[in-house]
Amino acid sequence: MVLVLTIGLFSASIPAYYDYLVSFSDPDLAPATVRANLEAIGISVDFYATYLLWVSAASAMVWMAVSVVVFWRGSGRWMALFTSLTLITSGTFTVYDGPAVLAEQYSAVWLPVQLLGFIGSVSLVLLFFLFPDGRFVPRWTRWIAVLWAAHETAYYFFPGSFLNTYRSLPLLNFVTIATIACIAAGSQLYRYRRVSGPTERQQTKWVVFGTVVAMLGAVGFAIPLYTSPMFAQYGSSYTFAFEAGVFGSLLLLPLSIGVAILGYRLWDVDIIINRALVYSTLTVTLGLIFFGGVTLLQEVFRTITGGESQLAIVASTLVIVALAEPLRRRVHAFIDRRFYRRKYDARKTLEAFSTELRDETDLGALSEDLVGVVRETMQPAHVSLWLHPDPALKDMKRAAIRESGRDEE
C-alpha cells in the first residue's frame, strides 16, 4: 500500500514541481536575478526547470528501485522490510521536494504527504540505530529515537507551532540534528567494535563508507556556494553541477545500504574504497592538468596570434589521453603503499614466491618457503605444514616390505 501511494504521489508531483520551478515560486530565489543569470549563460528557463526536475526525480527513482529490490530479495526478514520502507519514503518525500510542492497546491494530499515524509525522516535515523541486526545498540539509543520522532512530529504536523524548532529556534534545531547524527555515528562505531560479528562488520563498513562519501560529496559541492559570490548566484552555470553533484552523492546512501543487505558476500568493500581513492585522485589530477594546460596554451596563443584557439583544447586532450594510463598505475601504486601497506607487501611477497616456485624443485625447500610466505602475509599465531601421503606410494612401500620379508625367508 505504501508503495502504491508513494508512486501515485510521486507521479502526480512531477507536473506540479515543474510549474513550481518554471515560475520561480521558491521564496528564497530572486526571479529577476535567476533569469538574468540563465540568459547570460545562454540557457532557457524551460531547460533550467526540466533539468532540475529530472535530476531530482531520477534520484528519487533510484531510491525507489533499490527499495523494491531489497523488498523483493529480503526473504521476509523484518529488517529488510524496514529498510525497504525507509528507502522508498526517504527518497521520495525527504530528498525529493516534489510531493511537498504538490501538498502546497492541493490541500487534499497534505496529510498523506506529511505522514509519509514523517515516516521517511524518522525511519532513516532509526535505520542507523538498528542496522544491521535490528537491535538498539547501546540500548539507551531508543530514547534518542523517541526524541527525534517528537522533533519530526512538530516539523511535519505542526509547522507553524513554536515546537517546530526549524522555524522558531534555528540554532537549537541545528544543534539537535547535529547531536543526533553524531550519536547515530557513534552507535554504529560502538556496534562495530563491541557487538558485531564478521558479517555484520562487513555490512557496517558498506553503510558507513556510503554515508561518509555521500556527506562529503554533498558538502564539497555546497562549499563554493558559500565561498564565491559568482557561484552563490542561483542560475549560474555552477547551479547545474551543484544539483547533479548533491543528488548524485546522496545516491550512495541507498546503494551502499542495498549492497550491505543483499550483496555483502560478493564484494570486498576495501576494494571499492581502494578504487574510489585511485580514480577520484586520478580524476582530480587529470582535471587540473587539463584546465592548467588549456589556460597555459590559450595564453600562449593569445600572445602569438592575439586571440584564442581550439588547438589548446585539442592539445590538452591529447596530453590527458597519453597520461591517463601511466598516471593511473602510479596513483594506484602510491595508494597501495600509503594506505594498504600490509596488502601491498603481501602481494609483493606472493609475486616473489610465484617466481621462485617455477624454478625450485626441492620439496623440502619449497615447504619452508611456503611456511615463510604464509607467516609473512597472513601473520597467524602458529604455522605448520602437513603433506598428505600419496596412497599409491604407501601401497608400494607395503609391497616392498612384504617382498623383503619373503626374501629373508
Account of the 3D structure:
- The protein is mainly alpha-helical.
- The protein has three domains: 2-267, no CATH class; 283-339, no CATH class; 344-408, no CATH class.
- Helix content is 81%, strand content 0%.
- The chain is built from 18 helices and no strands.
- The chain has helices at residues 2-22, 31-40, 45-73, 78-95, 98-105, 110-130, 141-157, 165-168, 170-194, 198-227, 229-232, 237-250, 252-262, 269-305, 311-339, 341-359, 363-378, 391-408.
- Helix 1 runs antiparallel to helix 3 (45-73), helix 3 packs parallel to helix 13 (252-262) and helix 9 runs antiparallel to helix 10 (198-227).
- The N and C termini lie far apart (91 Å).
- The model is unreliable at 265-269 and 405-409 (pLDDT under 50).
Q: Give Rg in angstroms.
A: 30 Å
What is the first-to-last residue Cα distance? 91 Å
Name the beta content range.
under 5%
Tell me about the biggest sheet? Answer: none
What would the average pLDDT be, to the nearest integer?
77
Helix content: over 70%
Task: Lay out the secondary structure.
Layout: H1 2-22, H2 31-40, H3 45-73, H4 78-95, H5 98-105, H6 110-130, H7 141-157, H8 165-168, H9 170-194, H10 198-227, H11 229-232, H12 237-250, H13 252-262, H14 269-305, H15 311-339, H16 341-359, H17 363-378, H18 391-408
Helix pairs in contact: 1-3, 1-4, 1-5, 3-4, 3-12, 3-13, 4-6, 5-6, 6-7, 9-10, 10-12, 10-13, 14-15, 15-16, 16-17
